[in-house]
Amino acid sequence: MAGSGERRAAILHADLDSFYASVEQRDDPRLRGRPIAVGGGVVLAASYEAKRFGVRTAMSGRQARALCPQLIEVRPHFEAYSEASRAVFDIFRRTTPLVQGVSIDEAFLDVAGLHRIDVPPIDIGARVRRLVREEVGLPITVGVARTPFLAKVASRVAKPDGLLLVEPDGEAAFLHPLGVEQLWGVGAKTTERLHSFGLRTAGDVAVLDRSILVGILGPAAGRHLFAVVHGLTPESVVVGRRRGSVGAQRAIGRGPHSPAEVEAALLGLVDRVCRRLRAGNRIAATVELRLRFDDYTKATRSRTLPHPTCSTDRIAAAAVALLEAARPMIRERGITLVGVAVSGLAADAAYQPELSLVPDTTLLDVALDGMRERFGSSAVVRGSLVRRGEGIAVPLLPDDP
């Protein structure tokens, strides 16, 4: 495999196991060792006890209960997940400054620079696992390899609660027997396409010329898969890259849902996103609405604002307008998830606000942020959410294989 002798295996991929479900089992001893699903209406995470019955993320609650009649459904507690994530990432950053967060529950760690002052990378991975278990109380799997891609695949193979090292001279022996669906970035449609040509393992793909893969999958996907099976993916983690967007989403379960219910859920998400914008001293130029329907298909709609902003009112107005335009689709297809994201981010100090006769509510937004910071996120919530006893959001869904 190309490049296999050029570097040591010094990239760690650390991935919390069934993150949301593991936090719930940690915090409630009655749930330990039992099949649980986190979410209402749609499964956000399943414990490994539930996964043995075929319960999977994004499955409807009805399907999950049919597969596992003894399933325990648990309402999500996102504040607990955020707190656990912060504690785990603190351990990562105490290990090395070169940390690339992938989602709320996983990251790449580059420990190559520690080879003269610390133990070997495999032992660093073991120490990370021990510290996460002792300090945060959660199981975590670590893959160690020469590249982030291989480390990610190694952690997938090692799950749950495992540790796996792929040495540079053993990359082909590790990768080639794996099914193509186990390769990071190969989704269900690509897997189906490869299977239709009789290509079931990474080794099957590795014997093909790049031009053949391009012909099967198209230029971008074909070149990527060729690089994957020949060990030609990038070798370094990406640190310090500015987030390109800020978003939140919420599973609302199968309906029917009234227009007011969906709008209330959306506005709660807008509140969360705008608080995060202001906390990071950022403004956004584009608002995107994300929807998932009863048949698990998805749709997105976006609108670019006349002027970048961090104003909750202005971003909410754009999000609600997008939702109104999507009402016919929602009525026809049902809805199980709503989300909002903002992009085109810039530093707020670099932007000159527009002159407007409309009152600027940003100072009110900042005052409300301060109250929530001091007294908790539920100190001030929208009336529509209080009446329904809601107001929760998913800051960043985990990758939950």
From TrEMBL:
<comment type="subunit">
    <text>Monomer.</text>
</comment>
<keyword id="KW-0460">Magnesium</keyword>
<keyword id="KW-0235">DNA replication</keyword>
<feature type="site" description="Substrate discrimination">
    <location>
        <position position="20"/>
    </location>
</feature>
<keyword id="KW-0963">Cytoplasm</keyword>
<keyword id="KW-0515">Mutator protein</keyword>
<comment type="function">
    <text>Poorly processive, error-prone DNA polymerase involved in untargeted mutagenesis. Copies undamaged DNA at stalled replication forks, which arise in vivo from mismatched or misaligned primer ends. These misaligned primers can be extended by PolIV. Exhibits no 3'-5' exonuclease (proofreading) activity. May be involved in translesional synthesis, in conjunction with the beta clamp from PolIII.</text>
</comment>
<dbReference type="GO" id="GO:0005829">
    <property type="term" value="C:cytosol"/>
</dbReference>
<feature type="binding site">
    <location>
        <position position="15"/>
    </location>
    <ligand>
        <name>Mg(2+)</name>
    </ligand>
</feature>
<dbReference type="GO" id="GO:0042276">
    <property type="term" value="P:error-prone translesion synthesis"/>
</dbReference>
<dbReference type="Pfam" id="PF11799">
    <property type="entry name" value="IMS_C"/>
</dbReference>
<dbReference type="GO" id="GO:0003887">
    <property type="term" value="F:DNA-directed DNA polymerase activity"/>
</dbReference>
<dbReference type="InterPro" id="IPR043128">
    <property type="entry name" value="Rev_trsase/Diguanyl_cyclase"/>
</dbReference>
<dbReference type="GO" id="GO:0006261">
    <property type="term" value="P:DNA-templated DNA replication"/>
</dbReference>
<keyword id="KW-0227">DNA damage</keyword>
<keyword id="KW-0808">Transferase</keyword>
<keyword id="KW-0479">Metal-binding</keyword>
<dbReference type="InterPro" id="IPR050116">
    <property type="entry name" value="DNA_polymerase-Y"/>
</dbReference>
<dbReference type="InterPro" id="IPR024728">
    <property type="entry name" value="PolY_HhH_motif"/>
</dbReference>
<dbReference type="InterPro" id="IPR001126">
    <property type="entry name" value="UmuC"/>
</dbReference>
<dbReference type="GO" id="GO:0003684">
    <property type="term" value="F:damaged DNA binding"/>
</dbReference>
<dbReference type="InterPro" id="IPR017961">
    <property type="entry name" value="DNA_pol_Y-fam_little_finger"/>
</dbReference>
<dbReference type="InterPro" id="IPR036775">
    <property type="entry name" value="DNA_pol_Y-fam_lit_finger_sf"/>
</dbReference>
<comment type="similarity">
    <text>Belongs to the DNA polymerase type-Y family.</text>
</comment>
<dbReference type="Pfam" id="PF11798">
    <property type="entry name" value="IMS_HHH"/>
</dbReference>
<dbReference type="GO" id="GO:0000287">
    <property type="term" value="F:magnesium ion binding"/>
</dbReference>
<keyword id="KW-0238">DNA-binding</keyword>
<dbReference type="GO" id="GO:0009432">
    <property type="term" value="P:SOS response"/>
</dbReference>
<feature type="active site">
    <location>
        <position position="106"/>
    </location>
</feature>
<feature type="binding site">
    <location>
        <position position="105"/>
    </location>
    <ligand>
        <name>Mg(2+)</name>
    </ligand>
</feature>
<dbReference type="InterPro" id="IPR043502">
    <property type="entry name" value="DNA/RNA_pol_sf"/>
</dbReference>
<feature type="domain" description="UmuC">
    <location>
        <begin position="11"/>
        <end position="187"/>
    </location>
</feature>
<protein>
    <recommendedName>
        <fullName>DNA polymerase IV</fullName>
        <ecNumber>2.7.7.7</ecNumber>
    </recommendedName>
</protein>
<keyword id="KW-0234">DNA repair</keyword>
<keyword id="KW-0548">Nucleotidyltransferase</keyword>
<keyword id="KW-0239">DNA-directed DNA polymerase</keyword>
<dbReference type="InterPro" id="IPR022880">
    <property type="entry name" value="DNApol_IV"/>
</dbReference>
<dbReference type="GO" id="GO:0006281">
    <property type="term" value="P:DNA repair"/>
</dbReference>
<dbReference type="Pfam" id="PF00817">
    <property type="entry name" value="IMS"/>
</dbReference>
